Amino acid sequence: MDAIVKMLEKHQPFFEKISRNIYLQAIKDGFLGCMPIVLTSSIFLLIATLPGVVGITLPQPLIDWCNKLYNFTMGVMGIMVAGTTAKNFTASMNRRMPAGKVLNDGSTMVAAQCSMLLLAVTQFTTKFDGSELSVFDCTSMGTRGLFSAYIAAFITVWVYKFCVSRDLTIKLPKEVPGAIAQNFRDIIPFGGAVIICGIIDVVVRNLMGVPFSELLIKLLSPLFTAAETYPGLILIQAATAFFWFIGVHGPSIVQPGIDPIRLANQAENLQVLLAGGHPAHSLTFNMSLVGEFGGTGATFIVPLLLILFMKSKQLKAVGKASIVPVAFAVNEPLLFGAPMILNPYMLIPFVAAGCVNVSVAKFFIDNVGMNGFSFVVPWATPAPIGIFITTNFQLIALVFVAIIILLDAIIYLPFLKAYDKLLCDQEAERAAELGLESDGAATIAASTSAPAVEQATASVEPTAAAGDSEPVADQPEPASDASAKKDVDGLKVLVLCAGAGTSAMLANAIKEGAAQTGENIASSAGAYGQHTAIMDQYDVIVLAPQVRSYYNDMKADTDRLGIKLLAPRGKEYIDLTRDPAGAIKWLRENLD
After folding, report:
1. DSSP H or E segment with residue 154
2. What is the pTM of this model?
3. What are the φ and ψ backbone dihedral angles of 293, each rounded to 5 degrees?
4. What's the rounded Cα separation, in Å, for the pair 336 and 221?
5. What value, to the nearest 5°, has the Cα angle with vertex 338 and ends 551 and 475?
6. Window from 48-52, 253-257, 468-472 with minimum mean pLDDT
7. Which residues pair with 559 in a beta bridge?
8. Cα-flanking dihedrals φ and ψ of residue 224, to 5°?
9. C-alpha dihedral (145, 149, 155, 160), degrees to nearest 10
10. How far apart are alpha carbons 44 and 47 in whole angstroms?
């Protein structure tokens, strides 16, 4: 097992390079920017359908109003994603543009939305009350049009890059105000992007008789059908856990490519459910509640196992500190505190538990009558509650939850016991070396360096890819207390992670530490990818461990804006979230 982990460590830079791919980042961040649409629309659906589950009949006008709000939000998801994906892709492309040449992200956003409509939407005429009307088929404006949205976004930004790099723009005299001049500079790239997508639309419709969006779905349908089999679901879940195990945020790599079909399947499940049928799709957006039951690695039950069955002081402490965050799918305190990432003892259960969970879920959906997931709930919803809601409050879903909790406990317990024995032996050795009684081991464990496995993990957590200009590990020398005291006055700190869960832990610790020490420090939490519009309002940005591989991309932006960028390693980060005063001290020490 150690040999396998060492091999994974050797290839970690390659996997980090994949995670930093600008196309994957744009898709992930673009989709993340539209999550309010997904969540808000689901709330209206729950309002319209939940009372019926308990026998309450709502007035039909209220039901119609809620359904209208759903259709006018989720129904245009594809158009919105085209814009947000183009905006984020533009930000990445601007880092690679020649000096003095910048792409207008507002213009690329609108151009991508127009281009997506050309690729996905059909316009036709019909007669209504004797008048001829022009009608849009809205089927592909929503989740069915997500693939077209990505294609439109990438084509648009590349056309803009081509035109701006070669000065293929309309130039006005310098006396013309900048905003007006920018609009004219965007005419040629805007027109170029729209024309290219328009040509694709004409060719596909004439040759295939369907819009481009439907052609993509037909071409990819065999792949999606395969992904919804037992091997397909297992492969998706295993890849997600595997990437996280080696220190690269797995969902950021695996999910962008399958999010369109996951959302489309969930929307189809909803239509079937509302029509009184059995939603049968298992590859859905909220299947992550099952495969990532408590976070990647299906760690929901692990903190309780640590508290009840482990003997080492370290694992008991980690269990107590992580039980609440893990309940809300924030399992970084467990991943970096135990640790589980790159821990040879944890590789098999970390990958296997989620694979078993999705397999059991598919069996329940196909054979036991459990509904496929239909409603969308926030990722931080406690998994048992989320599963119960999104299956339309089926009692069989609660039985399913109990079964996977039991299975996950059976999978994890032998490996945790083996690791616990290693830690107990190490704690006893330290106690013996210092001539202390065994009951003093707790103090020693808390005050001395981490055990061998943890030290190895700390050295291989996400770092910048080889060859980047500045290594992630480099941090400035501590400043003197006097100058640091002055530096933190009025400081504004933004903490970023993948989904704004782990970042909230440190942001809250900084707030609490500021209140304890009387410092004038403001802190906020956010998700990487949604920070570009607000980052210039902060003095310091802190990257959580799961987005640490983006350090050099972020460094280019923070240097340009004069913002200090910090990237603590995994265990250090988790320790800071538990030590408010220490978080303030850490900020002082790491400011120039």
Report:
1. helix 146-165
2. 0.77
3. -70, 95
4. 38
5. 30
6. 468-472
7. none
8. -70, -35
9. 140
10. 5
Residue 497 annotated among the catalytic residues of the structure:
yes
Give the pair of three-digit tokens for residue 319: 């269990």
Identity at 50, one-letter amino acid code: L
Q: Tell me the two tokens of residue 313.
A: 């002081």
User: CA–CA separation, 575 vs 59, rounded Å?
Assistant: 52
Residue 4: the pLDDT is 60
Buried b (16+ CB within 10 A) or exposed e, 107-134: bbbbbbbbbbbbbbbbeeeeeeeeeeee
Sign of CA dihedral 248, 249, 254, 256: negative
Angle at 487 between CA 484 and CA 491, to 5 degrees: 130
**pLDDT score recorded for residue 11:** 61
Token digits for 450? 């981490």
Tell me how far apart the alpha carbons of residues 46 and 188 are, in angstroms, rounded to a whole number. 45
Residue 312 near residue 403, CB atoms below 8 Å:
no
pLDDT of residue 454: 41
Sheet holding 564-566, edge to edge: 521-527, 491-497, 540-543, 564-566
Instruction: For residues 497 and 484, give the distance between their C-alpha atoms in angstroms, rounded to a whole number.
Output: 26
Report CA-CA distances (Å) from 291 to 19, 228, 240, 405: 20, 14, 9, 12
Q: Identify which has the larger pLDDT, 567 or 17.
A: 567
CA distance 217 to 380: 30
Q: Examine the pLDDT at 333 and tell me if it is beyond 80.
A: yes
Provide the residue type at 272 as one letter: V
Please tell me the distance from the alpha carbon of residue 289 to that of residue 380, in angstroms, as a whole number. Answer: 9
Of 460, 459, 451, nearest to 421 by C-alpha is 451
pLDDT category at 435 given cuts 50, 70, 90 is low
The alpha carbon of 511 is separated from its chain's Cα centroid by a whole number of angstroms, namely: 24
DSSP 8-class letter at 523? E
d(CA 218, CA 208): 11
Please state which of the ranges 146-160, 381-395, 428-442 shows the lowest mean pLDDT: 428-442
Integer Cα distance of 489 and 485 in angstroms: 7
Q: How far apart are CA 70 and CA 60, in angstroms?
A: 15
How many C-beta neighbours within 10 Å does residue 489 have?
A: 9
Q: What is the full DSSP assignment across 9-31?
A: HHTHHHHHHHHT-HHHHHHHHHH
What backbone torsions phi and psi does residue 389 show, to the nearest 5 degrees? -70, -50
- Residue appearing with tokens 């805007």: 190
Residues 6+ apart with CB under 8 A from 580: 509, 510, 511, 512, 513, 516
The token pair that represents 515 in the structure block:
């209140």
Tokens of 217: 């779905």
Eight-class DSSP state of 521: E
Task: Extract the tokens encoding 280.
Answer: 């049968």
Q: Tell me the C-alpha to C-alpha distance, in Å, between residue 499 and each of 17, 59, 177, 198, 505.
A: 20, 37, 40, 36, 12
Neighbour tally for 494: CB within 10 Å: 22
